[in-house]
Design goal:
Length: 426
């Protein structure tokens, strides 16, 4: 049976609605082509992409270097499983560990898999290295976190939409307020069974909630003092998105590849995904040093597709692009410009309360309630004006374009955004 020929956006949406599970509520844009910072719908309308597949497409849509690497490897050898060695995995592992400066990498496929992997490593380390009694290990997490939607991960989420009717929930997690160093220190000192602190350096799904500039540094220091693993979930914030190679780098001024300046808070477990492949293929990973990673032995964790040849080749090319095209520096420069221009608009606005973010991960908070439709309506109007974005938490709109954007394009996009917002001023 041949694949249905899609002739219109309406037809495509109806097919999804009829034959697919209703686990997403997409903006009604049916995309069929992407290149750089732009995407096109079925009817040929052109848009700026201001979501970048939740920061997976940092390197831009269909970057030729990444696509070619993926195609060349797929046409030669796609999958061996880990039952056998292949000729690219070791080279990728060497490249990635040197790139991020860790001893070991454990390759997986999706972001949620990488988070689950980090949780398993942290617990096993606690039992075998820290001396915590087996099954007593606790991991500290933050309120309003988003680390995925597996059964374990939703167990420590406070998003009832993701949790309700999916129990029973997995124990072993302690939830504290985000950006609250006193809460972290108090919780660790009150409990000898803490294995790790799992944290997003910026909470993307919570509305690009950006903590105090020294939050990561202080958290790392507290973890070090108390023999607790500092676990950074950089799935959405990493790979140059925030104007640095990693968000745990803080407000760095690096002009080349990550210089690990004094603002850098080195994780014990670094969790990566999304832009690790430039959005071209499911690739994720956990990185750590030998003392931690070596608790994992053969047969204790794995994945048929984890570290497959196509994933390895794609990830190397994607990371090359980030470094060779200075995407972190571009994100830093354009992010500063974006927030400055938006703040100029906000001074006289009654529809936008504030803009926040770092690099090219930003959000505006709409002056309306979370259960209002205003942010959604604004995104629908943005679509009509040639820019795609999506609300989060009801009254927040996230803006995260590909990092290959240039200054002329960012100014054009700000014009589209502010012109659209003017339609909603009260």
């Amino acid at each position: 049976m041949p694949l249905a020929e899609i002739k219109s956006s309406e037809e495509a949406i109806k097919l999804e609605d009829k034959h697919g599970a209703h686990n997403y509520h997409p903006l009604p844009a049916v995309l069929s082509k992407g290149e750089g910072v732009h995407v096109w719908d079925v009817e040929g309308n052109k848009y700026y992409d201001f979501l970048s597949a939740y920061s997976a497409v940092n390197q831009g849509h269909c970057h030729p270097k990444i696509v070619n690497a993926m195609y060349e490897q797929a046409s030669k050898l796609a999958l061996t499983s880990r039952a056998f060695h292949n000729d690219i995995l070791g080279a990728y592992e060497q490249y990635a560990t040197e790139y991020f400066k860790f001893d070991k990498i454990l390759p997986m496929n999706t972001g949620a898999e990488a988070v689950e992997t980090a949780i398993k490593i942290a617990r096993k380390w606690a039992y075998e290295k820290k001396g915590v009694k087996e099954t007593d290990a606790q991991i500290i997490v933050c309120e309003n976190n988003f680390h995925g939607r597996t059964t374990t991960i939703i167990s420590f989420s406070n998003d009832e939409g993701a949790r309700k009717n999916f129990g029973p929930y997995t124990p072993g997690f302690i939830k504290i307020a985000y950006d609250d160093i006193d809460a972290l220190e108090r919780t660790i000192k009150d409990n000898d069974n803490i294995a790790g602190f799992l944290v997003e350096p910026i909470q993307g799904e919570a509305g690009v909630y950006t903590p105090a500039s020294d939050y990561m540094m202080k958290a790392k220091e507290i973890c070090n003092k108390n023999n607790v693993l500092f676990m950074a979930d950089e799935i959405q914030t990493g790979i140059a998105r925030t104007g640095a190679l990693l968000a745990v780098c803080g407000d760095c001024t690096c002009e080349g590849h990550c210089e690990r300046q004094e603002t850098y808070s080195r994780p014990d477990l670094l969790i990566l995904g999304k832009a690790l492949s430039g959005g071209n293929y499911p690739v994720s990973a956990v990185l750590a040093d030998d003392e931690i990673m070596n608790v994992i032995q053969p047969g204790q964790h794995g994945s048929t597709f984890g570290g497959n040849p196509v994933a390895a080749a794609t990830a190397v090319a994607a990371l090359d692009v980030v470094k060779d095209e200075n995407l972190a520096q571009n994100a830093r420069k354009l992010g500063n410009l974006f927030r400055r221009l938006m703040n100029d608009y906000i001074k006289d606005s009654n529809i936008v309360e504030l803009v926040r973010g770092r690099g090219l991960l930003n959000a505006i908070v709409i002056n309306d309630s979370e259960d209002s439709s205003t942010a959604w309506d604004i995104c629908m109007a943005l679509k009509e004006n040639g820019l795609l974005a999506k609300p989060t938490h009801g009254n927040i709109i996230r803006f995260a374009p590909p990092l290959v954007m240039n200054e002329e394009q960012i100014r054009d996009c700000v014009d589209i955004i502010t012109t659209t917002l003017k339609q909603f001023e009260k």
